[in-house]
Amino acid sequence: MNRAFGQIIQTSVYAGLALLAFAANSVLCRLALGNGLIDPSSFTLVRLVSGVAVLAFLVFARHGVSRFELGGSWRASAMLFGYAVSFSFAYTSLDTSTGALILFGTVQLSMIAATIYAGGKLHTTEWAGVVLATLGFAYLMAPGASRPSLEGFLLMLCGGAAWAAYTLLGRSSSSPLRDTYSNFLRTGPLLIVLLPVSLLYGHVALEGVFYAALSGGLASGVGYALWYRALPGLSPVQAGILQLLVPVIAAFGGVVFVSEELGIRLVMASVLILSGILIVIIGRQYFMRRDKHT
Questions:
Q1: Is the separation of the CB atoms in 277 and 244 below 8 Å?
Q2: How wide is the angle at C-alpha 24 spanned by C-alphas 276 and 248, nearest 5°?
């Protein structure tokens, strides 16, 4: 009993810290890019290189240099790179909470779309949740003075879709930490594409580099490692629901650290999007259990 309770506490701590790290990515990115402390290309470069460094330390400390074998895939690395680039450029025109809502809403909806594409069927209740979430996005982008940047919205949509693809590609991983490091490492050749842009049009302040390094090394590298430690103690439903907390945490972080305000449009859109996705997640679990008993 005590051991089981201890595992619950351990999983809760790992998951909580990981969710804070995920939300911190949005806050750190907005602090750096919103204040013009660094350009998006340079931010992405520093973020991914910092992630490689921290993940290398974690992997080699666990497995040792001699026993390490490269994992992951080039496709997963391309999706990781696409997510990171879209994420950075989107946050030049989106505030913290809006960006996090679009990102994680798109991730969840993309996962649902992948399920349908693979032949999975949604129940009427689940379809209702999808429609509700889609209406939330439509309301968020409806014409009006408080509508977010269309360019930023589309870029973050691309980032969310890329992250969903990266997640799906990693489902069969037998060593998530090793494969994550390998995927980060494989973004090296892809980063060469950003170098000319960064050198020609970039601007870098030391504070901006600091935020980018924290985003890559701490919020991404350590955050992903903590999430992988938490996942064995979570059901897929619990993991999905917990990730819906990230936009809420990010919104709070944006208010505290970036001095942003939460408008009524964002609050209402958040309720629609997150409620819709929650209905899908809970509905899927309910109907799966019902089918097993019939």
A1: yes
A2: 30
- Separation between Cα atoms, residue 119 and residue 147, nearest integer Å: 35
pLDDT greater than 90 at residue 2: no
Separation of alpha carbons 148 and 145, rounded Å: 9
234-254 pLDDT, tens digit per residue, is 877 678 888 889 999 999 999
Give 229's contacts (C-beta < 8 A, 6+ positions apart).
14
What's the rounded Cα separation, in Å, for the pair 122 and 128? 10
Examine the pLDDT at 279 and tell me if it is beyond 80: yes
Is residue 202 within 8 A of residue 33, CB to CB? The reply is no
Q: Please give the DSSP secondary-structure letter assigned to residue 141.
A: T
Residue 154 and residue 102 in contact, taking contact as beta carbons nearer than 8 Å: no
Q: What pLDDT shows up at residue 167?
A: 85
Q: How far apart are CA 260 and CA 99, in angstroms?
A: 13
- Structure token digits, residue 40: 């998006």
C-alpha 149: how far from its chain's center?
20
Residue 289 reports pLDDT greater than 70: no
Residues contacting residue 171 through CB under 8 Å, at least 6 positions apart? none
